[in-house]
Write a structure and sequence with these properties.
887 residues, Spore Coat Polysaccharide Biosynthesis Protein SpsA, Chain A, 2 domains, 8-stranded mixed beta sheet, 27 helices, 10% strand, disordered N terminus
Length: 887
């Protein structure tokens, strides 16, 4: 663990040197000695001051927001029925002093764009008319796309959960709770592309969440059927018996151990500072041992299988993969064979941790520690933990992540049938232990709770470089566009960190427009009688208290719903569950739910709810964008086209979804403009629009208005100018690489019949051997692929264009008229603008040299000068020896 910085007034003990490697303690006392080490101590109240900085940052972000008037806490309908339901979240809107000028600027730019396009059509004078026609079409497209993006932002809303009210009304005095149950899904493709340690940390953070233990179940859905993940889950379950009580006793945040033990300068906010340091050291040591066991699992499984195979050799058994209990693993084997290889294996359900009792189980000690760890007053129960891997068969389509989630939805319906489900990608973890409660504030609220289909949280990442070179944080989207949709029908589903109402996933209409007689039949949900009964129970809001008995008939039902052919002839993947045949199953699933009339909520918390990892290598990042943008375009050409489907969709919500599905097309016209600098290499002056000066001034005005509007968005979204600028830069890079690739794929799809390939994004691995101390070494690796050719050509074309322009300015300094000089200056201004937007791509091109980002401010001018000198030299040569070829 990295050394924290001691706080003011703190000291480091000299007894064992451990003080620098341990967290800071926050107690009501000024000093505290323990175990021979003097830990740095800061003054704080009983609840800790660790969140003071976060609260201050949240307050600064809210300076442009004001509270929306709330109705009475008890709804009239509830009073008439003799019941009541509290308000569990608050709303904020942007202050009028900021919102109205923002709206006016949008209207001003709309008028300016209309005038600009009208002026261009009226003055259809160009040196290259086909290019002029394409550019006018591009300007019209830019205007439509911008309008679809901007109009839904007219009334942003921020919603904050009221956790205190939730506890007051749903937690019981005896420690129990009447909160509804939750099924938590963790999805992983395989243990190679998605490291096991990430996945297990996600599971541990879920098991330690601050939610009634007997009211949620964690499911790990392994789409590879690998024994290593099942064995890792067993090891994780064993470690959780220590980790979870430790988190509860000391109010640990975050509750993913890998992230927790790597934090620097942590502040202790628990209630047992006298025991903390001893507990901390022991748990950290146990976690390091867990990591070693997880790392050794491949060899452990291999050695175990070799022993069993040698014992079974006389019986003629093939070289199988064996579980620790001496039984054959039904999933994929180390040495693949028929029925036991990737893409062809049986379905598997293994209950790793049984369902806990309803009463707290307090009091246990860890005696192998010195001194022993005392958890006498801590609830030691763990949530139910289940391993699931669906059946795969080459004869049936697996439908990628959507198919995996639907299989999980059915299995959870049989085992626990919670009314709410939340899914996580395995590289994310719960960063705020109260996140599940926060989502429940929206689902149980008396205003729109019954009509809320899902609650989406922002995505936050912790492995991104400090400058966010490739725009991974994407704050403009997560803190801008999502707040805007929050003021309409709600944010779209973003693939992870989203809690659903099970009925919404089942394709059931919201309460306000739901018919009384809902048919639950096999044509829609499949042939499993047990599962059909679970759907009926979900409709009646019935909750399964304990899992059913796992007898032979029930096991047969579980095998049936996991079979690769269960979806055939049903509505799964269409009107039920997560949608199939679209690369971005998240957007289209959210669209289908919104189209039925459900609304969604965007939940933000002072302490980020979830955190994950992002691809910091440019190539991997662009592959991710290809899948997202290509999948979005697939939605446009599917039955879920926002123009024609979604009968209950809000008009501006429809506009937002339409923008989601067509925005990659913008890249075609951006590429067209980006190649304009090539005209500098042509001897004669070629202008795209005449009069050119007025044309450029118009462009500057409409572009400046975008950034002026952006300044207002920066203020109400609570982001920084750097966030905005990184978004602009990466959009330009993607518009020359990932987006055109997606558009090209959609063009050839009718010929190939293949959709966008589902490619699991490579997660950040350990740095290369020569960069052991640089956790961002992956960012400096340039992996060349064909889609990087266009931005490379554009980058070097602009370098050459600026250099040639400088050379021409020298050669023709006494020849050019004032108008020509002005045209040249305006043209170079456009070149420089493109270079500024492509700056992160330029850093990627120079690879490891980009560790010093300022180097481009030297390399670019040098390249300009060299190109200019070459031009001058070539021009002089031609004048003297080949005058007929003078350029």
């Amino acid at each position: 663990m990295s050394s924290p910085v001691p706080g003011a007034g703190g000291a480091v003990g000299e007894d064992d040197g451990a003080g620098l490697n341990e967290p800071l303690l926050a107690t009501g006392d000024v000093g505290f000695h323990h175990s021979g080490a003097l830990a740095a101590v800061v003054v704080a109240d009983a609840h800790g001051s660790g969140g003071a900085k976060e609260k201050g940052a949240a307050k600064a972000k809210d300076r442009y927001w004001e509270d929306v008037h709330q109705p009475d806490a008890v709804a009239a309908a509830d009073l008439e029925s003799g019941g009541w339901r509290p308000l569990l979240f608050s709303n904020k809107k942007v202050k009028a002093a900021l919102l109205y000028p923002y709206r006016i600027l949008i209207l001003i730019r709309l008028v300016a764009v209309i005038l600009f396009i009208g002026w261009r059509i009226k003055h259809n004078n160009s040196d290259v008319m086909w290019f002029w026609t394409m550019s006018v079409v591009g300007d019209v497209w830019f205007a439509v796309s911008w309008l679809l993006y901007q109009l839904p932002k007219f009334s942003p809303i921020k919603r904050t959960p009221d956790l205190a009210a939730l506890r007051q009304h749903y937690d019981l005095p005896d420690g129990g709770s009447i909160l509804p149950s939750i099924d938590v899904f963790v999805t992983t493709a395989d243990p190679v592309s998605e490291p096991v340690l990430y996945t297990m940390n996600c599971v541990l953070s879920i098991l330690a969440a601050d939610y009634p233990v007997d009211r949620y179940t964690c499911y790990l859905t392994d789409d590879s059927g690998a024994l290593i993940l099942y064995d890792a889950l067993i090891e994780t379950g064993n470690f959780a018996a220590l980790w979870v009580p430790f988190c509860r006793k000391h109010s640990i945040e975050p509750r993913a151990p890998e992230s927790y033990f790597q934090r620097e300068g942590m502040i202790y906010t628990g209630r047992s500072p006298g025991e903390f340091m001893n507990d901390y050291r022991h748990v950290q040591r146990e976690y390091e041992e867990l990591k070693v066991r997880l790392e050794n699992l491949p060899s452990t499984i291999n050695e175990r299988s070799e022993v069993y195979n040698s014992m079974k050799a006389k019986e003629g058994v093939a070289k199988a993969t064996w579980m620790a209990n001496g039984t054959l693993w039904p999933g994929t084997w180390i040495e693949p064979t028929e029925n036991h290889r990737k893409g062809h294996h049986a379905g598997i359900v293994k209950i790793v941790q049984s369902h806990p009792s309803c009463k707290p189980q307090q009091g246990f000690q860890v005696n192998n520690a010195n001194p022993p760890l005392n958890f006498d007053c801590i609830d030691a129960r763990l949530p139910m933990l289940v391993y699931v891997s669906r059946e795969k068969n080459p004869c049936n389509e697996h439908n990628k992540k959507a198919g995996n989630l639907n299989a999980q939805l059915r299995i959870s319906g049989l085992l626990s049938n919670a009314p709410f489900v939340i899914n996580f990608d395995c590289d994310h973890y719960i960063n705020n232990s109260q996140a599940l409660r926060a989502a429940m504030c929206f689902m149980l609220d008396s205003r729109e709770g019954d009509n809320t289909g899902f609650v989406q949280f922002p995505q936050r990442f912790e492995n991104v470089d400090p400058t966010d070179r490739y725009g991974n944080h994407n704050r403009v989207f997560f803190d801008g566009a999502m707040y805007a949709l929050n003021g309409l029908q709600g944010p779209t589903y973003l693939g992870t960190g989203c809690m659903f109402r099970r009925l919404a996933l089942y394709g059931i209409d919201p309460a306000r427009c739901r018919p009384e007689d809902i048919t639950v039949d096999s044509n829609k949900f499949g042939n499993s009688t047990q599962f059909l009964n679970s759907v009926l129970a979900a409709l009646k809001q019935e909750r399964r208290i304990t899992p059913p008995e796992l007898d032979e008939p029930f096991l047969a039902e579980m095998k049936m719903v996991l079979s690769s052919s269960y979806d055939h002839g049903t509505d799964w993947g269409k009107g039920v569950g997560y949608i199939y045949n679209i690369a971005t199953e998240d957007i289209v699933t959210g669209y289908r739910i919104h189209g039925q009339g459900w609304r969604s909520m965007y939940c933000t918390m002072e302490r980020e709810a979830f955190r994950g990892t992002a691809p910091i290598n440019l190539t991997e990042r662009l592959y991710q964008i290809v899948r997202w943008s290509g999948g979005s375009m697939e939605v446009f050409f599917s039955p879920y086209n926002p123009l024609f489907s979604g009968r209950r969709l809000h008009l501006l919500q429809r506009a937002a979804y339409l923008n989601f599905t067509i925005y990659p097309v913008t890249s075609v016209f951006i590429l067209l403009y980006a190649f304009c600098p090539v005209m500098w290499l042509i001897p004669e002056e070629i202008l795209i629009q005449r009069p050119f000066t007025r044309y450029v001034i118009y462009l500057i005005v409409v572009i400046a208005l975008i950034h002026t509007i952006g300044i207002f968005e920066i203020k109400w979204a609570g982001i920084t100018w750097t966030d905005w600028w990184r978004n602009e830069q990466f959009f330009m890079i993607a518009s020359m690489s990932a987006y055109p690739t997606a558009v090209l794929h959609m063009v050839v799809k009718p010929l190939t019949g293949k959709g966008i390939q589902f490619r699991v994004t490579s997660k950040q691995q350990a740095a290369a051997d020569d960069d052991d101390d640089d956790k961002f070494a992956e960012m400096y690796e340039m992996r060349w692929v064909p889609m990087l050719i266009p931005p490379t050509v554009v980058l070097f074309a602009n370098i050459m264009a600026i250099g040639v322009a400088m050379g021409k300015a020298v050669v023709y300094s006494g020849v050019w008229s004032a108008v020509q000089k002005r045209h040249a200056a305006l043209g170079i201004l456009f070149n420089v603008w493109i270079m500024m937007l492509l700056y992160p791509f330029g850093l990627a091109v120079i690879g490891r040299w980009s560790k010093k980002p300022g180097i481009l401010f030297v390399l670019f001018p040098v390249a300009f000068v060299i190109t200019g000198l070459v031009y001058i030299g070539v021009h002089a040569f031609l004048v003297n020896f080949l005058p007929f070829m003078v350029i």
